[in-house]
């Protein structure tokens, strides 16, 4: 039979070829040269027909595909359609990659063997396949990371199939299965009945479940799991199986417990804060407050919440707060802002605000009402300005911040010149280094300060100054600074040096008397004012913040202590001037000692000290009963306070040979050294017991000796360290 003639090219590459929606190429199977291309191929590869014709098919594919194409073409039958093949990678003219599912068949074109290939775009399909694989891989990884496993219960057989991750959650080896009851037994206690009921409801009624229950693994580990399940039905709608997931949620449950505990603790702390706090979001809107009804709010909270800061406070206050917020964000610090604000009660109050930035752009203000503190500060300044004593105040770094007029006059410096460390300019050159070193040590230790030094004033005079300073703390216990007083000792020292002669000694006594009288009277008036204002403020009780009440209590106690010192000074002055009038009368010493012991009972009971009175009934002395009783009370209170706790204090009286009488008060305390006995009757000397917590001025024994001398007697003390002290009052017969 003769070979059929080749079909005419037009019958093969007619309009159907040109307009076919799929890209088609005609190429030489040996050289892979492209002989013809339709419109869809031009569009697919981004080239014209003239550009495609003459190219090799390999030029439309990435280089790493060339070897595979040649191998495929070498094994391709010449008379059959192309067998199943993989998805090929092709290139657009702009370089981006295409995926193609290629089908080809042999044809005759222009008198030569050729192949007609149809290129079906497989890009989307390949991407879907790749994405599905990625999602399967991610699901597997996510299941492992999230500790999520799958399970299936076949209701006909009662067998439970679990994924490897589900087996791992049970602490079982991979690839296992088990019965329903064995699976339920992993849930202890009430959880077992809960999961059984959920499975039965799902199996009978198709009710899905989602439970979190305690769980005990095959290894005995106690865990928490989340178990979900749903019903699977056949074509007739019958439930034939259950399937679901199991997830180990132990870490989340523990984190939730810890978070709940932390939130509870945080809520307790925030509720306990005496300050008002307001929280703002990143847009500076008020979103939360510690106490909606707090009187410090400028508007009711319902008119404040969700509103911008500038809408609820005056512009100048808003500017300060927003500037503080910016500083906190930029520097990572907690700035403090002070401002005045008219509250919703119509009162102007003064506030101190600390600003804390939060994650996400939000921020928090801690607001403290400092109005009362400012009032007290103003009163302190007013009293200090009027006081005849040189008073000064420093900050936590020891820099001088305030000096009253009396201080400025004593040092010969004005306040601006003395500020900071400017006060050093007034110190004598020989004393300045030593004083600066001692002051720095005091500031570093946040302790008390006392020192004498010389001041050289602008008029050329030199003054000897004694400075006392005590530390002042903020409510949080940190050092706020020191408050102190300076005394001009120049005149006193000059008189001391001149006391060698009678006239100089008399001059010193008169000067000291005048000074003590003036100082005592000058101090009593402002002290009474301080105590009066303090008592009025304390009468407000619950209306005061807790820290203000505590600070007022310190002010009251300090004022009472100073007033007691003033009274002691006045009594000492009267005794030294002989102004104490005596009223002699017969006094039974046993009765006097018993009366004194009764007056000491409250103090003795507080220290669990036993009081013992030892005196014959017949001893009688003619003296001033009131002054004698005061001597006994002074000596007895010292013995109780400084004697041994739970010890014995003995009050005794006896007649000595020659007829004189001796009254003694003895304790069982630590006793005194010879050096301490020598300093015992020095005014204001407390022998190092200033920090013992026992109140005192250091004038008690000085006054007691003066009282003994006024009675015509003599007071003496004897002591043995470690055994106790005996105070003896010798009175004439």
Task: Describe the model.
- A six-stranded antiparallel sheet has the order 8-7-6-11-10-9, sandwiched between helices. It has a five-stranded antiparallel sheet with strand order 2-1-5-4-3. The protein has a five-stranded antiparallel sheet with strand order 13-12-16-15-14.
- The chain folds into five domains: 9-127, PAS domain (Beta-Lactamase); 146-254, Beta-Lactamase (2-Layer Sandwich), CATH 3.30.450; 279-366, Beta-Lactamase; 373-574, 2-Layer Sandwich (Beta-Lactamase), CATH 3.30.450; 584-731, Heat Shock Protein 90.
- The protein has 22 helices and 28 strands.
- The longest helix is centred in the C-terminal third of the chain and has 37 residues, at 502-538.
- The radius of gyration is 51 Å and the shape is elongated.
- Helix 20 runs antiparallel to helix 22.
- It is of the alpha+beta class and 733 residues long.
- The chain is 40% helix and 27% strand.
CATH topology of the largest domain: Beta-Lactamase
CATH architecture of the largest domain: 2-Layer Sandwich
**Main sheet, how many strands, which sense, barrel?**
6 strands, antiparallel
Number of domains: 5
Shape: elongated
**Euclidean distance between termini CA atoms:** 175 Å
Helix content range of the residues, please? Answer: 25-40%
Structural class: alpha+beta
H/I helix tally: 22
CATH superfamily of the largest domain: PAS domain
Summarize this, please?
By secondary structure, the chain is an alpha+beta fold.
């Amino acid at each position: 039979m003769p070979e059929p003639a080749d079909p005419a090219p037009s019958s093969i590459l007619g309009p159907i070829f040109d307009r076919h929606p799929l890209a088609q190429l005609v190429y030489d199977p040996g050289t892979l040269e492209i002989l013809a291309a339709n419109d869809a191929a031009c569009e697919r590869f981004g080239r014209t027909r003239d550009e495609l014709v003459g190219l090799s098919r390999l030029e439309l594919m990435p280089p790493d595909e060339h070897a595979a194409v040649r191998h495929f073409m070498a094994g391709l039958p010449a008379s059959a359609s192309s067998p199943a093949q993989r998805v090929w990678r092709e290139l657009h003219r702009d370089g981006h990659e295409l995926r193609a599912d290629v089908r080809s068949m042999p044809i005759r074109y222009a008198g030569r063997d050729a192949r007609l290939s149809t290129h079906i775009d497989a890009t989307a399909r390949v991407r879907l396949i790749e994405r599905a694989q990625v999602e399967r891989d991610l699901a597997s990884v996510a299941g492992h990371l999230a500790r999520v496993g799958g399970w299936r219960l076949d209701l006909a057989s009662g067998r439970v199939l679990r994924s490897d991750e589900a087996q791992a959650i049970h602490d079982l080896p991979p690839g296992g299965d088990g019965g329903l009851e064995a699976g339920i037994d992993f849930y202890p206690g009430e959880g077992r009945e809960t999961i059984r009921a959920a499975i039965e409801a799902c199996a009978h009624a198709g009710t899905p479940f989602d439970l979190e229950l305690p769980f005990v693994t095959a290894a005995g580990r106690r865990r928490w799991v989340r178990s979900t399940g749903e019903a699977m039905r056949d074509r007739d709608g019958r439930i034939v199986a259950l399937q679901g997931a199991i997830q180990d949620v132990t870490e989340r449950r523990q984190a939730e417990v810890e978070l709940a505990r932390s939130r509870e603790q945080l809520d307790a702390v925030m509720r306990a804060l005496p300050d008002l706090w307001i929280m703002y979001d990143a847009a500076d809107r008020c979103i939360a407050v510690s106490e909606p009804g707090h009187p410090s709010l400028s508007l009711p909270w319902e008119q404040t919440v969700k509103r911008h800061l500038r809408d609820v406070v005056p512009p100048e206050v808003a500017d300060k707060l927003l500037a503080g917020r910016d500083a906190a964000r930029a520097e990572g610090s907690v700035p403090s802002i002070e401002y005045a604000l008219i509250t919703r009660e119509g009162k102007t109050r003064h506030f101190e605000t600390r600003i804390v930035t939060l994650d996400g752009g939000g921020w928090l203000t801690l607001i403290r009402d400092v109005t009362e503190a400012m009032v007290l500060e103003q009163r302190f300044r007013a009293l200090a300005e009027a006081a005849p004593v040189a008073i000064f105040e420093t900050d936590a770094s020891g820099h001088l911040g305030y000096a009253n007029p009396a201080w400025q006059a004593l040092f010969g410096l004005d306040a601006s010149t003395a500020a900071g460390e400017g006060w050093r300019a007034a110190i004598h050159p020989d004393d300045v280094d030593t004083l600066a070193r001692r002051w720095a040590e005091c500031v570093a230790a946040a302790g008390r300060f006392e020192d004498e030094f010389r001041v050289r004033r602008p008029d050329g005079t030199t003054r000897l100054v004694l400075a006392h300073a005590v530390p002042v703390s903020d409510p949080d216990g940190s050092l706020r600074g020191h408050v102190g007083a300076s005394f001009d000792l120049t005149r006193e020292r000059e008189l001391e040096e001149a006391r060698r002669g009678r006239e100089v000694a008399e001059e010193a006594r008169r000067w000291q008397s005048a000074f003590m009288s003036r100082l005592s009277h000058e101090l009593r008036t402002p002290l009474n004012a301080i105590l009066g204002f303090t008592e009025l403020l304390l009468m407000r009780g619950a209306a005061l913040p807790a820290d203000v009440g505590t600070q007022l209590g310190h002010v009251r106690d300090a004022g009472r202590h100073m007033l007691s010192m003033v009274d002691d000074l006045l009594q000492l002055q009267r005794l030294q001037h002989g102004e104490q009038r005596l009223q002699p009368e017969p006094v039974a010493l046993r009765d006097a000692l018993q009366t004194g012991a009764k007056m000491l009972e409250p103090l003795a009971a507080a220290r669990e000290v036993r009081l013992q009175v030892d005196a014959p009934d017949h001893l009688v002395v003619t003296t001033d009963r009131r002054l004698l009783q005061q001597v006994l009370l002074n000596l007895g209170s010292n013995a109780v306070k400084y004697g041994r706790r739970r010890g014995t204090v003995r009050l005794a009286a006896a007649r000595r040979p020659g007829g004189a009488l001796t009254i003694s008060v003895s304790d069982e305390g630590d006793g005194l050294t010879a050096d301490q006995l020598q300093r015992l009757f020095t005014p204001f000397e407390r022998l190092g017991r200033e920090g013992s917590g026992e109140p005192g001025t250091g004038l008690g024994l000085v006054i007691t000796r003066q009282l003994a001398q006024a009675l015509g007697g003599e007071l003496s003390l004897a002591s043995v360290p470690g055994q106790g002290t005996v105070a003896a009052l010798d009175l004439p017969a």
